[in-house]
Amino acid sequence: MANVSDSIYEIRYLDELSQKNSFIHKLHPLVKLIVSIFYIIITVSFGKYEILSLTPLTIYPIILFTLGDIKFFPILKRSFLVLPVVLGLGIFNPILDREPLLTFMNFAITGGWISYLSLIMKCFLTVLCALLLISTTGINNIAIALRSLLIPKIFVTQFLLTYRYISVLLEEIISIWTAYSLRAPEQKGISYKSWGPLLGQLLIRTYDRAQRIYNGMVLRGFSGEFYQDKIRFSLIDFCYLVIMIVFLLLTKLYNIPLILGNILTGV
Amino acid sequence: MHMADALISPVVGGIMWATSAGAASYSIKKIKLDLDEKKIPLMGVMGAFVFAAQMINFTIPGTGSSGHIGGGILLAILLGPYAGFLTMASVLAIQALFFADGGLLALGSNIFNLGFYTCFIAYPLIYKSIIKKGITKKRIFVGSLLASVIGLQLGSFSVVLQTFFSGITELPLLSFLLLMQPIHLAIGLIEGLITAAVVTFVWSARPEILEPINSKIRSKNMSYKKLIAVLLCSAVLIGSMLSWYASSNPDGLEWAIENITGNAELESSENLHTTLESFQEKISFLPDYSLKTKVEVESNTPVDVGTSVSGLIGGLLTLFLAISIGLVIKLFKNKRLKEN
């Protein structure tokens, strides 16, 4: 059950990162959320052969890593997790799309390979963006951002509760798994005879836990209301938002690398 | 089965976001009507349960492989379709944020694929209609098995359509479907069997957990017309907004269509491709936006050797500049740290 303890570690690691006190961490969560979503939209909006235009977009994660004081490799390692899906789906592009698109030193590069490469680049950029958002913002601040987007409090409360109890339930699963594997050694998974009882009992326990949690919440004055700190917009938030949006729009409207290359080679 | 951001175009992502948001706001309205505060912690903890339970591997008899539960149907059975859908949405949001499983733009599609079909189609039409005649262990088993299988089939069908309309893969629609549906039939059967085993166990051990929701559903008629109306309206609204954006800034969808119709001479000459294309155009809803079409060469994409060299140099220079921005910030920060 290595993946369960891994997940607990993942959550805790990202949670701890979000407690830092850097320039990026201090920005208003709504600003960070908007910029992240805008960044992802711009990234995936490039055509499948436009790898060149994607290169300026690497500046955004680099800025977040350095200004946000986030270590590069642990986050990069996490972004590899999604790659297999994209690699598997994209592999048909080089096979099916054999139109030579570009010749470089007598080598013809087919459109399929270029679109495959652009898919991988997009995958990395979007995944890094999401991971950097959570590791510089944290779940509570994401909830504040969601509330300022007028997302109903029922959803936000329930979103936060789900998050809180994930680690509790993961620990329960670890102990269930340990107990099971001690009684059934050298077994890869759980035998079909125990499918129902094993998960079913956890479900019943979880159900009872929810009742106790509800009682606890009511005793502490819960009435369906969701309270949170207010974070104010500052001038810095506004500047960050404007600069980032302008930068992203520039990368979309102008092919910056080509302009730079043309200046250098004098074409 | 999670869609990734890289596999989706902004237009498809936006439309799916709007649809899922419409379904979510309708669900919130519905659960507000029979506001039972007790349900909020139950939803939260059950979401965490599904998240955690998906990590247990169950051995499939006779094979070396293993499977896990499907969350949507289980949540719909335990919490009802509306609360189940919202819970599934927050589970997927947490997976997208913390595990990069799916992405922020693809979240709308993931909520739709994994939450909508299970909670609003498979649960009411299959599970509910099977147990309508009275709850028995056998009916629960068959109902949850079938609902899981069909929910997942619809979900994977929708993954294929979303990837297809995003123009990501060169794979023709039909082969893509032939690749995806059988795999997900097998996965769905396993998920269904595990879900069915869990639900029947809960029914025999603590029937009252399943009873209240089911009795409520039997007495209440759900107005699906309203839900569909809300969904349609939001999809049309956002779709038209996005297409307005696309036409005023001919980059995305509009641009691709323009290119496809304008650059007919770049059409691939291979016979197989053309037949596939004509077949695809017949079966697809948006024939002009099909995938294996002509090469989309943008005016500023380097094609000949001269510009490809300057493109390459420019690209490398941009990457170099990006990295050096990072290094300069770091140097500056280290200096300030030392001074302090």
TrEMBL record, chain A:
A Pfam family this chain is assigned to: CbiQ
CDD domains noted in UniProt: EcfT (cd16914)
Cell membrane found in the keyword field: yes
Compartmental location: Cell membrane
Transmembrane segments: 30-47, 53-73, 80-96, 116-134, 231-250
Keyword terms of this UniProt record: Cell membrane, Membrane, Transmembrane, Transmembrane helix
UniProt keyword Transmembrane helix, yes or no: yes
GO biological process annotation, one example: cobalt ion transport
GO CC field: ATP-binding cassette (ABC) transporter complex
Cross-referenced InterPro entries: ABC/ECF_trnsptr_transmembrane, ECF_CbiQ, ECF_transporter_component
Membrane topology: Multi-pass membrane protein
Highest taxon, organism lineage: Bacteria
Main localization (coarse): membrane
NCBIfam families in the record: ECF_T_CbiQ
PANTHER family referenced in this protein's UniProt entry, alphabetically: SLL0384 PROTEIN
Protein name: Cobalt ECF transporter T component CbiQ
Taxonomic lineage from the root: Bacteria, Bacillati, Bacillota, Clostridia, Eubacteriales
UniProtKB/TrEMBL annotation, chain B:
GO biological process: transition metal ion transport
Protein name per the record: Cobalamin biosynthesis protein CbiM
InterPro entries in the cross-refs: CbiM/NikMN, PDGLE_dom
Superkingdom of origin: Bacteria
Subcellular location: Cell membrane
Residue ranges of every copy of the PDGLE domain listed in the record: 225-330
Chief place of localization: membrane
Membrane topology value: Multi-pass membrane protein
Organism from which the protein derives: Alkalibaculum sporogenes
Pfam families for this protein: CbiM (PF01891), PDGLE (PF13190)
Transmembrane parts of this sequence: 7-28, 40-60, 72-98, 104-127, 139-165, 185-206, 227-246, 309-332
Keyword Zinc attached: no
Alphabetical keyword list: Cell membrane, Membrane, Transmembrane, Transmembrane helix, Transport
GO cellular component: plasma membrane
